[in-house]
Amino acid sequence: MFLGFIRKTHLGMAAAVVSLAFSTAAHADRLADIKARGSLICATLTSSEPLGYPDPQTRQVVGFDVDMCGAVAKQLGVKLEHKGVSVEARIPELTLGRVDLVVAALGYTKERAQQIDFTSAHYQTPIKLIAHSGAGYNKIEDLADKRISANKGSTPELYARRMFPKATILTFQDTPAAFLALAQNKVQGLALSQPSGIRFVNESDGKYKFLEGALAWEPTAMGVKKGEPALLAAVNDALDKLEKSGETDVLWTKWFGPQTKFNIPREKKLTPISSFQ
């Protein structure tokens, strides 16, 4: 009887191990989960025009990043399930498995690449500094020891700290809050990507300006949780097809083209992320 009990115990443990192995394998394939679910959970920012921001009429979050999410979802043959995230929550939401893909002004850095996987970079933009036009600052170096605001956890924060170690960097939850610090003279400069900063400059009637130079040129890509090679390959394949068909350029022109207040050309096309490693 005792031997029978031992055999049953061993068989039960073996079955549990096999079951756990199958369960782990199933959860390890995010692409299969997306296909089975029929939707891609894609995260974007919600207060960064024209990447992701609320349409004043519909109150729905719209923008270039939202459209890119939709385009990738279509290539994968599933529907888009949009989710809004803050700058600092982008990577945690991905690593915790709460979203499938992050398309939220996600600049590539080697530090971030230790936490998540990056797709090819679908565009590149300069990281700039904005200052009051009448403050007497002309070049980014003029703020090397001044107070600079930035989004918390953003690459503008990272590059500002890296380039100007003597500066005081104040961080905020979103771009409007970081800009308000500049408007209220709590800082002398605001660090952010050129697309995010153009509206502040263009709509200020000359009150604000971009300083000469750039903190960095930032390759921007999409983020995938580590350990999901099938999903990473599928998104890269989708981006390649969108590039070759011209759809990425169409979407860029829609949100950044000459008919918009941004008027930023997409100078750098789809580039393998290995080019920046």
TrEMBL record:
Protein name (database record): ABC transporter substrate-binding protein
Cross-referenced SMART domains: PBPb
Domain Solute-binding protein family 3/N-terminal, chain residue ranges per copy: 39-259
Coiled coil start-end: none
SUPFAM superfamilies: Periplasmic binding protein-like II (SSF53850)
Keywords: Signal, Transport
Pfam families reported for this sequence: SBP_bac_3
Origin species: Herbaspirillum chlorophenolicum
Similarity section: Belongs to the bacterial solute-binding protein 3 family.
Signal peptide: 1-28
Domain of life: Bacteria
